[in-house]
UniProtKB/TrEMBL annotation, chain B:
Keyword match Isomerase: no
Membrane topology recorded in Swiss-Prot or TrEMBL: Multi-pass membrane protein
PANTHER family, per database record: GLYCINE BETAINE/PROLINE BETAINE TRANSPORT SYSTEM PERMEASE PROTEIN PROW (PTHR47737), GLYCINE BETAINE_PROLINE BETAINE TRANSPORT SYSTEM PERMEASE PROTEIN PROW (PTHR47737:SF1)
Entry's localization field: Cell membrane; Membrane
Family according to the record: Belongs to the binding-protein-dependent transport system permease family.
Protein name (Swiss-Prot/TrEMBL): Glycine betaine/proline transport system permease protein
Domain spans labelled ABC transmembrane type-1: 89-268
Keyword Translocase part of the UniProt annotation: no
Length: 475, 278
């Protein structure tokens, strides 16, 4: 008897999902599911009054992951050909965009301004997705299309598979109240409300009762480290603190997605860096999906998991920071990234290569043989768990054979090492002091790779054929 | 030029006659409401002994503003009492407060609608220009036709003359709420009403209060004109003094109006300042 009730709940929840997603390209499939599910309801509804079963939560999730479109690629937000044209009769410009006309040409011909031109991307859950571009590139418009603060001209925004553009005002309000938070460039704090009242705002409009929302707001305030300031007014706070309040307000309703529109651009550089660090820390704690808008490439590279680079309303390239830096899609991106100090962006993990190793039990003779076979002049000595113990050179190995000593005695133990997330900038000194390549070990002392000078130089010169170049020199 | 003159005057008069014929119950209803409000307020104000009210006003001035304002209120009202114009001044105050109250009651919502709907604003703005620039004497006549003689047509013409600042500044105040704040309110899922009550009205409050202050001042400036169609009060004293060439009496009554005006102005200004500092 008990397992039947959960089935019914799953079915009902499932129906509501299906109703909202039938427009999708996977629509036919989902409609099919709905029909099948309806039949189940008619059979099961007789048993409505069966006691509640708590296992339903798990089953629900199972069901959702199985049938909703979300389960497919874990994209929480998907934009498809999202376009915004400003001006009277904006649809007129759509065929021109299809023809590939430029923003200038369309404006000269029709007086219509292309805000965002057919942007398509998908953002995975828990990702920091950075939209970057110079002012006027349409990035702030694009982020507002996602929660319809600006109404898109055409295109789709899918949130967990639901088309945001098809929501009625009520659904849209609920979407904004529960699923997305937003942080603004100029903070946009309400000057007539105290800090805590500002943070409560999103909860207040949802009708959450006073005590509960105060509690939630206080949690949020604590998260951004502003406890004790709850009764101050925004104008009594510094810029950095104001934006913390903005962040707390954005996080107060525990949204799935946080939209941050140039959130740190108005802060001075040192505070900006602190805020970036804190955001990264928050993100690693809370696993929020964040859409972050910035015009600052270094900021984008610093915090982005994925970066979309925009120019004149179009997305020019989407990729990880490394991809943007190492494989610029075109001249524009190339010029954009040419001034970046790569040594402050790339980490050891980007340039390290696989080391030649030997386990400690082997003798010096084997070591020498290994070196000959592989054409290298030194080997990294590790234990069976790949923990780094030392380095043995050909010379040392030869001496060891002469003296009859073991590998353990012959190897050098003083080799420079660093962790994989060390910036190249910080590796330079280590490299200059040692005759060996810097070995990269993780927190457990396991050898992950080595960094040789050639690979670093190749990376800094923006050479994408990094691996190949590195290999040549490794001997 | 042999074009016939547009018979505008005839049209207006037939419109007036038509309105009078068909909307008489409506006008009677308005007359009753407005008349009762003014008379009720008048009776209430005159029910208290003058000194008690003077003390009360002084305390109000003290609690809203500083001691200087309280002192001015005390001395000014004592002068009015001394001149023997107390009861008339209270009649005038009743008229002014009623027309200001009705102006706010109508003006703030109209202003809100203007801020919300651009097309509505486009209709209302020229109407407000018309109301403010048309000489007040011109609408005294239809006011008398519809509401007969007495204080009611006085209140009505005061409202027509005094309501535009409240509408304009409510509209302006709401439109001046920074775009990013409105956007933030939207981004967190406010309904239009929540946005209005929780954000736009509080932020616009100083501007709206400035409009209300203007409205009070303008309706005070109408009291003499209103007395021409039978509104009682200190305005009637001024009017009588002017027609009889009685400079001294005219000055005394005028002084009472000035004192009342300053007190009302400073009090509302103080309220504006307070609403700004929040």
């Amino acid at each position: 008897m008990p397992p039947i009730m959960p089935t019914l709940i799953i079915v009902i929840k499932g129906l509501s999902i299906c109703k909202e997603t039938v427009w999708d390209e996977k629509g036919s499939y989902i409609e099919h599911t709905v029909r099948k599910v309806r039949k189940v309801i008619t059979v099961r509804s007789i048993r409505r009054l069966t006691p509640f079963d708590h296992s339903k939560d798990n089953q629900l999730n199972l069901w959702e992951s199985k049938y909703s479109t979300r389960g497919h690629n874990m994209a929480i937000i998907e934009a498809k050909r999202l376009t915004k044209i400003f001006g009277a009769d904006p649809k007129k410009a759509i065929p021109l965009l299809d023809k590939g006309w430029s923003k200038e040409k369309i404006f000269a011909d029709t007086k219509l301004t292309v805000g965002v031109n057919q942007a398509s991307f998908s953002i995975e859950e828990g990702q920091i997705f950075v939209i970057m571009g110079l002012s006027g590139s349409g990035k702030s418009t694009l982020v507002r299309l996602l929660n319809r603060l600006i109404e898109p001209t055409i295109g789709q925004v899918l949130f967990n598979g639901t088309d945001v553009l098809k929501m009625n005002p009520e659904q849209l309000r609920n979407f904004r109240r529960k699923n997305v938070g937003m942080v603004f460039q100029k903070f946009a704090l309400f000057p007539h409300r105290t800090v805590i009242q500002n943070i409560e705002y999103g909860l207040e409009v949802q009708g959450i009762d006073k005590k509960k929302r105060k509690e939630m707001a206080m949690n949020s305030l604590e998260l951004v480290g502003l406890k004790g300031w709850e009764n101050s007014y925004p104008d009594q706070l510094s810029g950095g603190m104001q934006q913390r309040v903005g962040l707390a307000r954005g996080l107060a309703n525990d949204p799935d997605v946080l939209l941050m529109d140039e959130a740190f651009s108005a802060l001075d550089p040192l505070i900006r860096k602190d805020m970036q660090d804190e955001l990264l820390e928050l993100q690693s704690k809370m696993k929020k999906t964040i859409v972050f808008i910035t015009h600052d490439l270094n900021e984008a590279l610093r915090i982005g998991d994925q970066i979309a680079l925009m120019k004149d309303g179009s997305i020019v390239q989407i990729g990880s920071p490394e991809e943007i830096l190492m494989q610029p899609a075109n001249k524009y991106v190339e010029r954009f990234v040419e001034d970046v100090d790569l040594s402050k962006v790339l980490t050891a993990s980007h340039v390290m290569i696989k080391p030649e190793t030997i386990t400690i039990e082997k003798g010096p003779r084997v070591a020498l043989q290994f070196m000959r076979d592989r054409g290298v002049s030194s080997l990294y000595v590790v234990d069976k768990g790949m923990r780094l113990l030392g380095v043995i050179t050909a010379e040392d190995a030869a001496n060891a054979i002469k003296n009859g000593s073991r590998l353990e005695e012959a190897m050098e133990r003083e080799a420079p090492f660093a962790t994989p997330d060390t910036m190249l900038n910080d590796l330079f000194e280590l490299m200059s002091l040692s005759k060996f390549p810097v070995s990269i070990i993780d927190d457990n002392g396991r050898l992950k790779g080595i960094v040789i000078k050639g690979a670093v130089l190749a990376a800094l010169s923006g050479n994408s054929g990094l691996e190949a170049g590195a290999r040549h020199e490794s001997a | 030029m042999n074009l016939p003159k547009i018979p505008l005057a005839d049209w207006i008069e037939s419109l007036e006659a038509w309105l009078e014929a068909h909307f008489d119950p409506f006008f009677k209803f308005i007359r009753m409401i407005v008349g009762e409000t003014v008379n009720g307020l008048d009776t209430a104000l005159n029910w208290f002994p003058a000194l008690v009210l003077i003390l009360l006003f002084t305390i109000i001035a003290w609690s809203i503003g500083k001691w200087r304002m309280a002192l001015f209120t005390l001395i000014g009202l004592l002068i009015i009492e001394n001149l023997g114009l107390w009861s008339q001044t209270m009649q005038t105050l009743a008229l002014v407060l009623t027309s200001a109250f009705i102006s706010v009651l109508i003006g703030v919502p109209v202003g809100i609608l203007c801020a919300r709907y651009g097309s509505f604003q486009k209709i209302v703005t020229p109407l407000l220009d018309f109301m403010q620039t048309m000489p007040a004497f011109v609408y005294l006549l239809p006011a008398v036709t519809f509401f007969s003689l007495g204080v009611v047509p006085g209140v009505i013409s005061s409202i027509i003359f005094a309501i535009p600042p409240t509408i304009r500044l409510t509209n302006l105040g709401i439109r001046q709420v920074p775009e990013e704040l409105v956007e933030a309110a939207d981004a967190f899922g406010s309904t239009p009403l929540q946005k209005l009550i929780k954000l736009q009205l509080p932020i616009a409050m100083p501007t709206i209060m400035a409009g209300i202050n203007q409205t009070i001042m303008l309706s005070l400036s109408m009291v003499v004109i209103a007395s021409m169609i039978g509104a009682q009060g200190v305005g009637a004293y001024v009017y009588r003094a002017v027609t009889q060439g009685n400079t001294g009496v005219g000055f005394e009554a005028g002084l009472a109006i000035v004192i009342l005006a300053i007190i009302l102005d400073r009090l509302t200004q103080q309220v504006i300042r307070k609403s700004k500092s929040v």
